[in-house]
Amino acid sequence: MLAAFGFATMVAMIKLIGKDLPVSQILFVRQLSMSIMLLPFFFTNFPGALKTGSLSLQFVRIALALVAMMAGFTAVINMPLADATAIAFAKSFFVTVFAVLLLKEQVGIYRWSAVFLGFIGVLVMVRPGTDGFSIYGAMAIVGAASAGMVMVIIRKLTRVDSPSTILAYQAVGVGIVMAVPAYIQWIPPTPTQWALLAAIGIVSYFAQKANILAFSYGEASLLASLDYVRLLYATLFGWFLFNEMPSASTGVGAGIIIMAAVYTVYRERRQKQRLASDPIGRGQLNH
Question: Which of 101, 42, 96, 30 is nearest to 66 (CA)?
Fold first, then answer.
């Protein structure tokens, strides 16, 4: 829940500043800020801070995180905030699919039904084949799929690496990749823009840390369903900051997605499955 609020706040700030600065620059400064906040961890744990049990997974996560952020941030800047956030909820259903394929999590007919309904909700919002469809809606879906895969990889990495190590690889890795395009497209920020860029990095750090800690204990395909409170935050931010309200199709599609997710959580409670489960106890140590 804390991660959801942090990510919603971060996205609102990115939309504010994205009208004047390129996405590559925003992303580079964001990662640089996160890296600076990780310096105490580096100094006290070097070189162990970069010791990982799966370097290949770290690199895959960096690549997918880069795609997720570039596509997702571009969609947020060019779409109403609530619309982009609602489409991004497809991430939770991608998490379920990838968790089954990669983590061998057990998902029954009820949760698969929720996944199916969730994708129907996404189609209602994106409206492919109609005049309401835009390339930015498609980018939001690409970002959601990449973010879902990142969540599942985080789940695997937490079995062999600490949350700080996982966050360090992501912060530094994406920052290094974005350094060149940010330099080419660089626009000198104003003092206000510098303050916003710094705030984006700080909020991102704590939201990422909360997200990693949550997924180190909870079942990936279930925890993702708790992220839907972000739509409320996004709607409020969109209303107060940008004078935006969700479209009718977004309201219907988001309603379908949220109902499917709430049903999933309700079903899990009925099955008396623990929200927080020990990955070692479940015998899921393969990586």
Answer: 30
Tell me the C-alpha distance between 199 and 14, whole Å: 10
Distance of alpha carbon 146 from alpha carbon 135, whole angstroms: 17
243 three-state secondary structure: coil
Whether 197 and 26 have beta carbons less than 8 Å apart is answered as: yes
Is the previous residue joined to 47 through a cis bond, with omega within 30 degrees of 0?
Answer: yes
Distance CA 5, CA 274 (A): 23
Residue 246 near residue 86, CB atoms below 8 Å: yes
- Tokens linked to 89: 């909820």
pTM of the model: 0.75
Which of 90, 141, 121 lies closest to 254, judged by CA?
121
pLDDT, tens digit only, all 287 positions of the chain? 888 889 889 999 999 999 899 999 999 998 888 888 878 877 777 766 778 888 888 899 999 999 999 999 999 999 888 888 878 877 777 887 887 777 777 767 777 777 788 778 877 877 665 555 678 888 988 998 898 888 888 888 888 888 778 878 888 888 899 999 999 999 999 999 999 999 998 998 888 888 778 877 766 556 666 667 777 788 888 888 888 877 777 778 878 877 776 776 666 666 644 444 444 334 443 44
Distance CA 103, CA 83 (A): 30
Please give the distance of CA 178 from its chain centroid, rounded to a whole number.
18
CA dihedral 186, 189, 193, 197 (to 10 degrees): 40
